[in-house]
Amino acid sequence: MLRWGGGLLLLAARVASADPCKILIESNDVMRFNMREMSVPATCSEVEVTLKHTGQLSAKAMGHDWVLAKDSDVSAIVNAALAVGAAHSYLPESDRRIIAATKIVGGGESTTVKFSTSALVRGNHYAFFCTSPGHASLMRGKFLFGEGDRIAKTD
Ligand code: CO
Q1: CA of 31 to the centre of ligand 1 (A)
Q2: How many whole angstroms from 66 Cα to the centroid of ligand 1?
Q3: What is the distance in A from the centroid of ligand 1 to the CA of 119?
Q4: What is the third-level CATH fold of 19-154?
């Protein structure tokens, strides 16, 4: 009981000290993000996502980006990214299905995107993923908007 209580206190302290509207996500040389799920409270009017590539490989060999879209739009965006190719950094420009996207980074680099949450609807299913060719099957996770609030309330 004591250990459990202490753990909760520690967790509460950590949550209080970090800005929940700013998220750091890492990627690496073996085609992975370091999280499968990210959660943003509905109270965030803007979200800032920083993608860090902790590997050594170049952007050409193992470049990653962080793209946010509705879960149901991911396949179409990945195909569109493949179609525009390396010349357009595997990102279809002015594609309205893309809610937010960073540029592609290689090992040792970081990139940040800031976006408004006005396009997000609570309860909708969103996904983040990488549009480098073949990456999205491994580099894809859930993006929860306003879902964490509900989880917090049940604690
Ligand atoms: Co990638």
Answers
A1: 5
A2: 8
A3: 25
A4: Immunoglobulin-like (2.60.40)
In the reported structure, the alpha carbon of residue 136 is separated from the centroid of ligand 1 by a whole-number distance in angstroms of 7
Cα(134) to centroid(ligand 1), Å: 8
- Sign, CA torsion 82/86/89/95: negative
pLDDT at residue 11 tops 90: no
- In this predicted structure, what is the pLDDT of residue 113? 98
Tell me how far the alpha carbon of residue 27 lies from the centroid of ligand 1, in angstroms: 7
> Where along the chain do its domains lie?
19-154
- pTM for the model stands at 0.85
